[in-house]
Amino acid sequence: MFIEIKGLKKFYKNGDKEVAVLKGIDCEIEEGKICVFLGPSGSGKSTLLNILGGIEVFEEGSVKVNDRQLGSLKKRALDDYRRSDLGFIFQFYNLIQNLTVKENIEVGAYLSKNPLPLDELLETLGMYEHRNKYPNQLSGGQQQRTGIGRALIKNPALLICDEPTGALDYSTSLDVLKLMQEVNRKYKTTMLVATHNTAIAEMAHESFILHDGLLVENKKNEHPTDAKELVW
């Protein structure tokens, strides 16, 4: 199994009190799948993705990703894991404003030993004709496509997406989700998507519903809906 999570617990300090954010998560995820983590704000979905991304540590349980036991990785090994195995897509694009689309994506390529071909990726993203534009010359959807390209150019084993359409309107969100689905089909990239939008789960191979730090439901989808057909 590509990802194995067992008995995962995460706590935060709130003054003298210890608050449980994740209260014992167990799940497995196959390689090459799109998986959606659903839940309202405070349910623990972003914390779970941060742990899988090596950004946050956890107190109890085990997390195994692509044969790496994250809880036992030292700093250098964790840095290597983030650099070689992961791509990140966030709600806000975090592009470098004085770099072009092509240059912003190339930043990700420098971190990889086996990057994807840049021109091919620009074509897949629908950004080839915009490759020499700067972020302030792009629409929100084009900026998010550039952010996706920066994450994908590394050829990551795992793409972590935290509310990737949260700052976009409906039409642009569908375009971005369609692109993500196309990328998954073309490159077989495993994708984890945290969202509060239940409609997005319809395009996923599997969805996990979190509530108050607990995994309360797990649904497999043998026939994911094409993203272009999603309605919310």
Tell me about this structure.
The structure is a single chain. The protein is built from 6 helices and 10 strands. It has helices at residues 45-52, 75-85, 101-109, 118-125, 140-152, 170-187; strands at residues 3-14, 17-29, 34-38, 60-65, 68-69, 86-89, 158-162, 190-195, 206-211, 214-220. The chain has a 6-stranded mixed sheet. Strands 2-1-4-5 form a 4-stranded antiparallel sheet, covered by helices on one side. A hairpin with a 2-residue loop joins strand 1 and strand 2 (17-29). Helix 3 packs parallel to helix 5 (140-152) and helix 5 runs parallel beside helix 6. It is globular. The mean pLDDT is 94.
Offer a few descriptive terms.
232 residues, 6 helices, alpha/beta, six-stranded mixed sheet
SSE ordering: EEEHEEHEHHHEHEEE
Count of alpha/pi helices: 6
The gross shape turns out to be globular
- How far is the N terminus from the C terminus? 32 Å
Strand content: 25-35%
Strand order of the largest sheet: 6-7-8-3-9-10
Radius of gyration: 17 Å
**Class computed from helices, strands and strand pairing:** alpha/beta
